[in-house]
């Protein structure tokens, strides 16, 4: 009898364990795809029809190639996706087989299409419309998957959207079960041997990726092997400054970009011995003392830096005053899955926000004061470092870390540009960081208004050199010479709102 019961128990276990595993796997996958925004209806972008063919913009104020001045009363001819001529002779216009569309640029300002140099597309292709509607004609995704390569191919074949530079997911050096779990739940790549490194680099090149993203948690041996293999393959390395490397190791590494200013200030904190809220002034003095020397070294080694300053500035508010912040951002346009989060992953909303402090901490006035001082110091250090980067002519690019908590795709770049000016950049320098600088880094003919460059342009109603917030005054967007007027841009935004509202599980009226 006992043997019979044992057999039944074993038979039941054999059936139950695989079923339980399958159910668990399916549930976790659903939670992860929901958090990435994959369950929001995908908008058919073919419904938006830009004006195509030759286009002549007349009598417009045009941003000079160096980005410093607006040139008045200019004409620009767009043809075959390129800037064909600036101030073309009349006979050239007349020679066109079909008369070009004439756009009156009187009292308007033409700038290059904007570039957000640090975004996360997640599983949210509708964000591509948000970028375009906000004048962003190129994005750099800093955690890409093969799906994005397919999206880019569709865009380059004629589907509307910004062009996409695609860096890999972060590369770690974990192994075994820990590596498998990390890769599954955290979208990380893990390599732990020289053979795996070479295989990874080859596969990324073969799959069409543009760069390799470095994690903070990669060991020194794998880091150097990865950079050597990437250099041999002609693939740039971007991302974090690993804790195993530090600033001294960075100078001899060959890494081509740091993805956040805070990567530098975190390294300086390590060198300082770790700052505490009661050593804030000493830490800031240390950053001030080291900042120009570090910036000069970055310039010497030709290491670019991307900003993501607005996000850092928002942390104090996300921790202590989240609701007022959510009322200020374009929250309705962010993918509901990403905003709401899931059981397994936090989102943006109160009580379930990635950065919000625990109720226990918020209930302790002394703990709140210590935390505020810590994060205010953290941001002050980033501002000091940003000024040093700017003063020492480091290649500096505006990036937002879009789809991180409170960072709304498209809209957030305008917030970032404002933060850059508040941190000490001129309006022209801030604009340069979102146009010519990333164009230069990507070695792409974008980011300047010059003959032969891509006709990726934004027509504004107000001058951004007088007020950087005027980048929001978008009248029309030109993507490879095709024009989206204000009505079409508004239609894109309205469609995003429609599908987002259908996908919500939680109301957000309290944040309007």
From TrEMBL:
Domain Amidohydrolase-related: 109-482
Keywords: Hydrolase
GO MF, any single term: hydrolase activity, acting on carbon-nitrogen (but not peptide) bonds
Signal sequence interval, chain numbering: none
Entry annotated with the keyword Hydrolase: yes
Domain of life: Bacteria
Gene3D superfamilies for the chain: Metal-dependent hydrolases (3.20.20.140), Urease, subunit C, domain 1 (2.30.40.10)
Alphabetical list of InterPro entries matching this protein: Amidohydro-rel (IPR006680), Metal-dep_hydrolase_composite (IPR011059), Metal_Hydrolase (IPR032466), Metallo-dep_Hydrolase (IPR051781)
UniProt cross-references to PANTHER family, sorted A to Z: ALPHA-D-RIBOSE 1-METHYLPHOSPHONATE 5-TRIPHOSPHATE DIPHOSPHATASE (PTHR43135:SF3)
Protein name as it appears in the record: Amidohydrolase
